[in-house]
Amino acid sequence: MNFKVTDVEQFQAQKQFIDTAIVPLLQLDFAEQGMKQSSSAGEYLMSLTNFIEQQFKGRIMLLPPFSYTVNTKSETLPTTIEQELKDAGFKSIIFVTCDHSWTEFKEFLNIIWLPPIPLESMDKSVKQRILEDQLKQVIPNLTNIWV
Amino acid sequence: MSKNRVTRRQFLTYTITGVGGFMAAGMLMPMVRFAIDPILQTKEEGDFVQTSQKAAEITEVPVKVDFSYEQTDGWYKSEVADAAWVYREGDQIVAISPVCKHLGCTVNWASDPTHPDQFFCACHAGRYEKSGVNVKGTPPLGPLDMFEVAENDGFLMLGKKIANTHSN
Ligand code: FES
């Protein structure tokens, strides 16, 4: 499910089935050297999380990405969101990010960190294959959380 | 002769009605078009999409065929990636939609080791026979949809989604 009205209505009616929230954490970097890389990572993160949503539509809700810059980043962001989502009825909350710094929270949060792959230079079929490969790596994380 | 003569007044009346008519038509036509356009567009969705799957290479074992088409939503054009599970049944090709009829996850062929000849939905353990018919007792309440199929130059083409034609 996506964060849009028709999907949210379904979530509210079927909370026992749609029990997982996916939260992309996206770092924006506006510095001359970092901006391009940051946009590329953002594109990758969005493509991958959308693909995960398509495959597991009936079980997860993909939230819009939580974006922050170096200066607006807050360490308490994920824990706060997790609590609010739990209160809303989600059983598992999974953060997906290309920002390595979140991996230190792995002990008490479900964080999936992925090194960004520059998809922009690839043609459609290669892109599709890469996303499928990446998805295969993410699936064990999901199933571990679900069992 | 003088009886049939068109007076200046009549002439003007005719001309103005005529021109007015054209103007009205000019204004109405786009409106009518907008009104019926959605109908015209569904026709377009019924078009077949070419895939890269060779028809001759399709066997009795379902394989996943990816395809994509362009979708316009307002001003926003996007490329939609879709897929079908395709196999041969007698002399016919069957294309099954992978969208689970429970809540819309993507189903996979033989991904549940305990049911190697069924479609499996990992989200809530939904299962379907090869025909796409849902297995009773699992969450889905209806069979998987199918795609219309055609062949072009030896390649498989997929058309619009239709209700499953296999009966339970
Ligand atoms: S979405 Fe397939 S079983 Fe629930």
From TrEMBL, chain A:
Name of this chain's protein: YpiF family protein
Origin species: Solibacillus merdavium
From TrEMBL, chain B:
Protein name per UniProt: Ubiquinol-cytochrome c reductase iron-sulfur subunit
InterPro entries, per database record: Rieske_2Fe-2S, Rieske_2Fe-2S_sf, Rieske_Fe-S_prot, TAT_signal
TM ranges: 12-32
Organism of origin: Solibacillus merdavium
Pfam families: Rieske
Lineage: Bacteria, Bacillati, Bacillota, Bacilli, Bacillales
Highest rank taxon of the organism: Bacteria
Alphabetized Gene3D superfamilies for the sequence: Rieske [2Fe-2S] iron-sulphur domain
Entry keyword Magnesium: no
UniProt keywords, alphabetically: 2Fe-2S, Disulfide bond, Iron, Iron-sulfur, Membrane, Metal-binding, Transmembrane, Transmembrane helix
Domain annotation Rieske: ranges: 62-158
